[in-house]
Amino acid sequence: MKLKGQKQESSDSSEGSKGKMTLLLALVALISAFGSSFQYGYNVSVINSPAPYMQDFYNQTYFNRNGVPMDSGFQTLLWSLTVSMYPLGGLFGSLMVWPLVNNCGRKGTLLINNLFSIAAAVLMGTSELAKTFEVIILSRVIMGIYAGLASNVVPMFLGEISPKNLRGAIGVVPQLFITVGILVAQILGLNSILGNAEGWPVLLGLTGIPSVIQLLILPFFPESPRYLLIQKGNEEQAREALQKLRGWDDVDDEIEEMRREDRSEKEEGHFSVLSLCTFRGLRWQLISIIVMMMGQQLSGVNAVFYYADRIFQSAGVESSNVQYVTVSIGAINVVMTLLAVFIVESLGRRILLLAGFGLCCVSCAVLTLALNLQNTVSWMSYLSIVCVIVYIIGHAIGASPIPFVMITEMFLQSSRPAAFMVGGSVHWLCNFTVGLVFLYMEAGLGPYSFLIFCAICLVTIVYIFIVVPETKNKTFMEINRIMAKRNKVEIQDDKEELKDFHTIPGGQAEKKEVSSSEL
Question: Where do the record's region annotations for Disordered lie (predicted)?
Fold first, then answer.
């Protein structure tokens, strides 16, 4: 399938890696994000609106089996399992990233992963006919495993096939599709569409459709050239894949850069998670992704979504109309993430991270104030609506999309799968924790719980400001050199070895300079 870029041009820049957005590259990004990331978002919000009907089904099924109604405590337990099994599955999925992407490739993993989604969709769609609610809970785990793999493998795959000047923009596409998935689930979940007693099995089962589409189309697209060259050692296939993706034949510069990366990694071998955690040369990269992932999930994004309905009701929105308000928040989320796709290459990652977490921090602080005063000051409920919207904007432009882009960029080929496994596990573990703890936190602290989120955002901002470098428009090797300074290890260009600074007299004197302003 030769979908070469429209313009058969040789590289127009002296460095040869200023890639253009070719038709093939755009299609790979869209198919992998639609087939995988979309469903992560869809399944995050799909059970929110049909919840009462699904709980009735749980109750009715139990009654039909045992002749007595379900105990309310048991029903609460079953429902919280239905909700929380998804992020728990996500954690299991993240733990499968390293073995799968190294053995089956990036594209191969995405294709295998679709089987999870299709199986879960069939089980959820037929659960009402089969009169079993246990199957729904099991399917949520399977869907979680699917989402855990998808949330890590899609950014890794797209980051590896993108030219460096488009890596950020293409790296935000998975997050864009996650928000689109959330929005589609909210729209289809409206009472008038599928969010009703008859429609909910269909609503849950629809998640298999994007997987079937991806399973049919993705095999015709190329695998990640970096995987083919560095991990499979097949330069011929890598060159061919790269030529298709770039739309021109002169890809020598990029192949050379991959070879350099390959040489520099020969000495280190493949990183397992354990060796990644103990290796000094990647210490700050590892701490950075853990901090960014924890910040992303613990900054209270789920809590704001939980609270949104209540906040709008207190501002006088009819309870029957709250579902439309939720859809409009989902739409704001999509629009702002789309904006991030276009501005991430001009403004850079660092600015978006700082601005995103900054907006979240301020809006959490003001929201605490507004929620406390809304009974005494009439206009405070409108201020809390503004806070929710500002928060969503902040999360959509920085906190949600950029950490996954940064994992791709801060690690080289041999350590990237292990890094995604660590980052992904932190992401899902924190997601699971917030889902579990927030209801208790909210019962104990009320609106003051947002102060905790405010503090977490602040800590994340300070860390990013001090440690995380700007990575836009740099090759993976250049970013690696910037971080080598931070880790106090030496990368010598001629041998590409990593040595400790203190073993070299004069320290940084012989180090290749990388614009120090970036530090």
Answer: 499-519
